[in-house]
Amino acid sequence: MPAIPVTVLTGYLGAGKTTLLNRILSEPHGKRFAVIVNEFGEIGIDNDLVVGADEEVFEMNNGCICCTVRGDLIRIIGGLLKRKGGFDGIIIETTGLADPAPVAQTFFVDPEVAERTRLDAIVTVVDARHIAQRLADSHEAEEQVAFADVILLNKTDLADAEALEAVERRLRSMNPFARILRTERCAVGLDDVLGIGAFDLDRVLAAEPGFLSEDDHEHDQSVTSVSLAGTRPLDPAAFDLWFRTLIQLKGVDLLRYKGILAFAGSDRRTVVQGVHMLSDSANLGLWQGGAERVSRFVLIGRKLDADALSAGFAECAAR
Amino acid sequence: MSRSPERRWETGAPVVAIAVNRDGSHAAAALGDGTLWMIDLAEAGAEPAVVPVHDGACLALARDIDGGGFLTGGDDGRLRRIAPGTGPVTLATAPGRWIEHIDSHPRARLRAYNAGKRVHRIGVDGQPDGPVLEHPSTVGGLAFAPGGQRLAVAHYGGVSLWWLKGAAEPVRLDWKGSHLGMLWHPEGTHLITLLQESGLHGWRLKDRAEMSMGGYPTKVRSVGWTTGARFLATGGADCAVCWPFTGGGPWDKRPLELAAGAADLITVVAPHPTSPFVAAGCGDGLVLLAALDGSPPAGVAPASGSAVTAMVWSGDGRHLLYGTEAGRLCHIALPERAGKRPG
Question: Does any domain span residue B1?
Fold first, then answer.
């Protein structure tokens, strides 16, 4: 049975999440979506598969301090799976004040949800005029940008070009993975927000060019990204120890990370990605014959010590 | 063994739950297309009556207070009663909510169901009985105590134990984590909950002694008492793990592992009500009967490729019913010399 793709829509209050949701549901795509909303009544579309969520965030009793999940999502998805006929996808709208981590972690931690669904992407809608202020005063707004696979920089018609450039630079420095799309009234093609496969390891590989961006970091912000790169092949045991220690000690502050790594003695590219302490990796695809084997590892998080990370990563090079 | 009479239907919708009524005349299967299939257990030639009871999916099924009827809950927010030969009656509605957990008790003469964090009680006359019971988070399971004097409600962080008469505040049994279902010991002495974290928790009520039963590769979704409550049989592993409850509880004892070696995990267990064996249904549709003496299990149904999602015995142990996610519904009537393991 193919896993059902799940799209998470986040964004601060008033950014345009409901507009995007109504747009997705009203397009003539012939697909059937189950929609999990935090507030009934805002959806203008008649859909018998709209379910209200309670946003119950639970700590797992598994010794992992940052492992919180959305208990209501586990329950609702379990119930939806009992329905005859099924549906083509699930869309989860979160409240403006929601932290995306428990939502994302639910798809890795719960065995039934992990088996039957796959997290396709986190889509964050931001208001081009207000996002700078939101980032300054709201922890959740920062998380929503940090976790995004696609950022809709919305209401661009209401902001001037210079301000848009500045906002986009800021978003890019916080989250180098995300695709940033400028929109008015959330007008995007459905292919830009659905079927992204952002958590698939092979898509991490396909998105490699975007990895290279070395942006100017703003050191006054709390969520930052650190890009690590090295041309010497890595020692598997050394990297494993460094990485495991890192996610154990810094898992709470590490929001998302993706890497494409070259290990000594392997002709394959190793891809790693994760959320907090939950990581996933695989060996995918051969390195091209003549191409230089560069290991790249990008981390998004809080209180990231770029120098220490850089030194630790360099120490992993095979001798 | 001579082939037992078996009836089989392909319903086309996931089988969510199956129950047999108290007098043993009928079984009901609640399906993911909102229908209830009512099966006459005595009339081998009769086709099931298919009755639409919910818009959307059925989510819960239980015996009603009387000997004949059933209660169903659905994602249309309705609690309905249906009895053989009659149409469904709506007992309660919870607009915008799902009704996922239901129980009833003949001595308490009550039905209980949840809508989100709240538990409501309804009397025989169909009217609300007693105040609404509030909980700190969405209810994960509820069950009347065997004696019918208490109601246990599982939720995040533990269980609330309500007296049906008297105290306005529940006794709390605390255990961190999400509790997704529960089962009373038939003597009312222990309470077991099913955890989000791949295991079980439990309390011996007289001294609040706690027990944790772990080591499962996935969430345990199905538990049941073997005859005489000697063992608690559980799904969620590649064998039917049976925890001994003779001599006070499972502390410091090793569980029995029955029906080991199945190709897929056991999803549903149904201990026989009067004889020492357990029916186990697997993720690939295989159904086995395993004796508690550890002798090799007997096959009841081969793997169909679709997980067994519900399985139940009639109270006299002469009828076994099971259903799968793909919608297969089976009724197996055991030979008259019931009480011995067929084999």
Answer: no
Strands across the sheet with B35-40, in order? B15-20, B26-31, B35-40, B49-52
In this predicted model, what pLDDT tens digit does every residue of A7-35 receive, in sequence order?
999 999 889 998 999 899 888 888 889 99
Of A56, A61, A111, Cβ closest to residue B218: A111
ipTM for the predicted complex: 0.88
Q: Which of these three, B202, B226, B252, is where a domain ends?
A: B252
How far apart, in whole angstroms, are the C-alpha atoms of residue A58 and residue A79?
19
Domain, as residue range, for B328: 253-343
At A242-289, the pLDDT tens digits run: 999 999 999 989 999 999 999 999 999 999 999 999 898 998 888 887
**Which residues in chain B have their CB less than 8 angstroms from residue A114's CB?**
none
* Nearest-Cα residue of chain B relative to residue A79: B59
Q: Do B178 and A79 touch (CB under 8 A)?
A: no
| Residue of chain B nearest A39, judged by CA positions | B96
Domain limit, last residue, from B205, B231, B252: B252
Say which CATH architecture domain A204-315 belongs to. 2-Layer Sandwich (3.30)
Sheet strand arrangement including B6-10: B6-10, B328-333, B319-324, B308-313
Nearest to B80 by CA among B97, B67, B66, B99: B99
Task: Name the CATH superfamily housing domain A4-198.
Answer: P-loop containing nucleotide triphosphate hydrolases (3.40.50.300)
Inter-chain touch A56–B138, beta carbons under 8 Å: yes
The answer to the question of residue B177 being in a domain is yes
Instruction: Give the closest of A40, A61, A84 to B32, CB-based.
Output: A84
